């Protein structure tokens, strides 16, 4: 065993050297018109060597390191408690959620503008992750192109406002419905696919949408994106310093308060909060309805589900469509928040992050997904001080997380449906 | 009630059924026996439309269902207990049963659920247990119960005795007998030829995609060829 470990560790260390030395150890310098290769400084080489040594040591003692990592839940005081009864758990969960929502309603008036802005982003990710959770967590369809529907929502609003002057409140349902329509249409060709194949095809779809947006320059402005997307209004009141649209009034004048840029940020946050709550509640409802159980049944056993007369087409398409619908929601809010969108906001990495949130949170679990969305959005911001290393820290945190809790932050606890009987 | 006329079924280019004709009358138990790979499961799945027959006809209750979609067929009064049980392992017993009555109303579900619990008191005891954690026998009972939830006129069972202890097998066969008394037509596929033919009104013997013999259950049991091939001499 020990000999095997040693061999493995040596191998890993050599791989580290082979990979990192050519990347870090040489610099390309331009000298006039030619480019020459230069060796890197002593510190870089030392760093690479050090990295190799660290990899060697880690691999050598991997078993004990990973073993103690796995012991961690034992330190967690909640790990050994008995599972609560379902009714009690549900009551506790809804009280907690209510408290959280009340807190979230009050909080923006106390926090800084930057924090509220970030929180709006968190809420957008919560909407996205809750929507993707339907597709991946509940229906078990691995969708890597989810960001496409987010883009459809965002671009619907951007284009409608640019060409027809449509306001946020009109664009919101249109964007969501159009995204849902895209979900339906894109769902058809992938119905027969499963697992890896489905993942690859949806990945392709996501990229197609992005590339289309990038290349339809006359309509979408291509890589230059679309700017000047209006902010939402409150019953015809605008939040800008000056009223842009005829017939509207301005918020601060109506209420006779001084103009502040914060009003708009808080208003957007509140809209995102309401929409996120609507998303969560709607999906929770759906989970308990027959369609929710059909998703689960199809995920668990497709043949059995079909043998009971469920139509695979209808069930899968409904999951795709509903997931896409909420992505469209999120997209509209995003466009309004940014005021400017371009295809760059909808790259594959975005899909990957949303998927990471779902997986980290625990597939199918709403609470877990919400927590993970908060963690995944805020963590890179907190790590901003480490500037170039922040994605590295982010990645490391994810890896540790998956080792520690492979089933996610809060694995899904199914709500068991019981038939009420009149006794 | 169910008629198959010269049914051919293909998996891609390979023909698995070479012209099979089977008839099941209302209220009987018909057993289909055959060796591994004879095409028994294929035959049942053809009835369900997954895969569909490439030629020939499948008629259920006077209606041609050869080209119907599986989901429509399964909603028209026919239910299947698939090979290998296939219960929804993450769902509780009760939820599994409710999935079986997916297209029924609440009161109907309540009634059929009570009925299933009457047939299988064991399921009632395990009502809130996750199906995946139950024993093989219990899962088989659940699979049968789930199929009954849609109140079918006809139930198709694919090797319900697979991997079960003799005592449990006996129980399951008793239940199948009871179903006939309730007026449900049964089409049963079995490796367990002795018990299957004993219970059956009539039986068919399938060999490599063709019906070799068909007769009453008693006669098949007495048939020397059947005894040699399927009853261990
Ligand atoms: N999905 C499939 N694709 C290709 N060939 C298949 C498929 N399913 C079954 N077959 C083939 O069809 C033939 C009949 O298979 P089938 O499953 O119907 O047999 P069976 O009588 O049910 O056997 P067993 O008693 O082992 O369940 C076999 O040769 C099998 O290899
Ligand atoms: Mg079979």
Lay out the secondary structure.
The complex is a heterodimer of chains A (423) and B (233).
Chain A (H helix, E strand, L loop, with lengths): L1 H23 L1 E6 L2 E6 L2 H19 L1 H14 L10 H21 L6 H26 L8 H18 L3 H23 L4 H21 L1 H4 L16 E2 L10 E2 H4 L6 H28 L1 H11 L1 H6 L4 H27 L9 H14 L4 H17 L7 H15 L19
Parallel strand pairs in A: 3-4
Antiparallel strand pairs in A: 1-2
Chain B lengths: L1 E10 L2 E11 L4 E6 L5 H8 L7 E6 L2 E2 L5 H4 L4 E4 L11 H8 L5 H14 L1 H5 L10 H13 L5 E5 L7 H16 L3 E6 L2 H7 L2 E6 L2 E7 H6 L1 H7 L3
Parallel strand pairs in B: 3-8, 3-9, 6-7, 7-8
Antiparallel strand pairs in B: 1-2, 1-4, 4-5, 9-10
How is this structure best described in words?
Chain B: Pfam families: ABC_tran. Chain B: One of its GO terms (molecular function) is ATP binding. Chain B: This is High-affinity branched-chain amino acid transport ATP-binding protein. Chain B: Keywords: Amino-acid transport, ATP-binding, Nucleotide-binding, Transport. The complex is a heterodimer of chains A (423) and B (233). Helices cover 69% and strands 4% of the residues of chain A. By secondary structure, chain A is mostly helical. Chain A has two domains: 72 residues, no CATH class; 316 residues, ABC transporter involved in vitamin B12 uptake, BtuC (Orthogonal Bundle). Chain A has a two-stranded antiparallel sheet. The longest helix of chain A has 28 residues. Chain A is globular, with a radius of gyration of 25 Å. The mean pLDDT of chain A is 83. Chain B is α/β, with parallel strands linked by helices. Chain B has ten helices and ten strands. In chain B, the strands form two sheets. In chain B, strands 6-7-8-3-9-10 form a six-stranded mixed β-sheet, sandwiched between helices. Chain B has a four-stranded antiparallel β-sheet with strand order 2-1-4-5, with helices on one face. In chain B, β4 and β5 form a beta hairpin. The model of chain B has no long low-confidence stretch (mean pLDDT 93). The complex binds adenosine-5'-triphosphate and magnesium ion. The site of magnesium ion (MG) has 4 residues of chain B, from α1.
């Amino acid at each position: 065993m020990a000999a095997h470990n040693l061999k493995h560790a040596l191998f890993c260390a050599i791989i580290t050297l082979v990979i990192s030395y050519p990347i870090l150890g040489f610099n390309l310098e331009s000298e006039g018109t030619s480019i020459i290769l230069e060796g890197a400084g002593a510190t870089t080489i030392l760093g690479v060597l050090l990295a190799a040594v660290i990899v060697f040591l880690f691999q050598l003692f991997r078993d004990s390191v990973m073993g103690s990592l796995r012991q961690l839940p034992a330190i967690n005081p909640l790990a050994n408690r008995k599972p609560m009864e379902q009714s009690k758990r549900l009551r506790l969960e809804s009280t907690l959620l209510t408290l959280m929502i009340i807190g979230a309603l009050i909080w923006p008036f106390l926090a800084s503008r930057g924090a509220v802005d970030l929180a709006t982003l968190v809420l957008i990710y919560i909407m996205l992750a809750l929507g993707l959770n339907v597709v991946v967590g509940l229906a078990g369809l691995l969708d890597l192109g989810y960001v496409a529907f987010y883009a459809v929502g965002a671009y619907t609003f951007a284009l409608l406002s640019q060409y027809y002057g449509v306001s946020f409140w009109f664009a919101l349902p249109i964007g969501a419905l159009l995204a849902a329509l895209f979900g339906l249409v894109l769902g058809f060709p992938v119905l027969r696919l499963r697992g890896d194949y489905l993942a690859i095809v949806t990945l392709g779809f996501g990229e197609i949408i992005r590339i289309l947006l990038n290349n339809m320059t006359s309509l979408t402005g291509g890589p230059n994106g679309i700017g000047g997307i209006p902010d939402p209004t409150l019953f015809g009141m605008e939040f800008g310093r000056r009223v842009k649209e005829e017939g509207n009034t301005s918020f601060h004048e109506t209420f006779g308060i001084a103009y502040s840029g914060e009003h708009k940020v808080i208003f957007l946050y509140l809209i995102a909060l309401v929409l996120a709550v609507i998303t969560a509640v709607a999906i929770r409802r759906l989970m308990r309805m027959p369609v929710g159980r059909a998703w689960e049944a199809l995920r668990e056993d497709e043949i059995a589900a079909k043998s009971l007369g469920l139509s695979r087409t209808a069930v899968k398409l409904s999951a795709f469509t509903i997931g896409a619908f909420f992505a469209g929601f999120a997209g509209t809010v995003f466009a309004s928040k940014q005021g400017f969108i371009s295809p760059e906001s909808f790259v594959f990495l975005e899909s990957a992050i949303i998927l990471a949130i779902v997986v980290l949170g625990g597939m199918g679990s709403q609470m877990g997904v919400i927590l993970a969305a908060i963690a995944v959005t805020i963590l890179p911001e907190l790590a901003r001080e480490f500037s170039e290393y922040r994605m590295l820290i982010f990645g490391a945190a994810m890896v540790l997380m998956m080792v520690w809790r492979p089933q996610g932050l809060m694995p899904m606890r199914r709500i068991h449906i019981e038939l009420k009987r009149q006794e | 009630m169910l008629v198959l006329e010269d049914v051919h079924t293909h998996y891609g280019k390979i023909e698995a059924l070479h012209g099979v004709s089977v008839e099941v009358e209302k209220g009987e138990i018909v057993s289909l026996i055959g060796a591994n790979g004879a095409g028994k499961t294929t035959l049942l799945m053809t009835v369900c439309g997954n895969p569909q027959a490439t030629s020939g006809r499948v008629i259920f209750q006077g209606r041609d269902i050869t080209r119907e979609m599986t989901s429509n067929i399964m909603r028209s009064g026919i239910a299947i207990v698939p090979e290998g049980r296939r219960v929804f392992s993450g769902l509780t017993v009760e939820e599994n049963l409710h999935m079986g009555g997916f297209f029924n109303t609440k009161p109907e579900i309540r009634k059929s659920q009570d009925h299933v619990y009457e047939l299988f008191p064991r399921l009632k005891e395990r009502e809130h247990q996750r199906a995946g954690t139950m024993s093989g026998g219990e899962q088989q009972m659940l699979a049968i119960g789930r199929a009954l939830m849609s109140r079918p006129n006809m139930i198709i069972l694919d090797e319900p005795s697979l991997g079960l202890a003799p005592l449990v097998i006996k129980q399951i066969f008793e239940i199948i007998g009871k179903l006939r008394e309730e007026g449900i037509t049964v089409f049963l596929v079995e490796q367990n030829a002795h018990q299957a033919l004993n219970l059956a009104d009539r039986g068919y013997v399938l060999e490599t995609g063709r019906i070799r013999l068909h007769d009453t259950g008693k006669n098949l049991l007495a048939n020397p060829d059947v005894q040699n091939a399927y009853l261990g001499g």
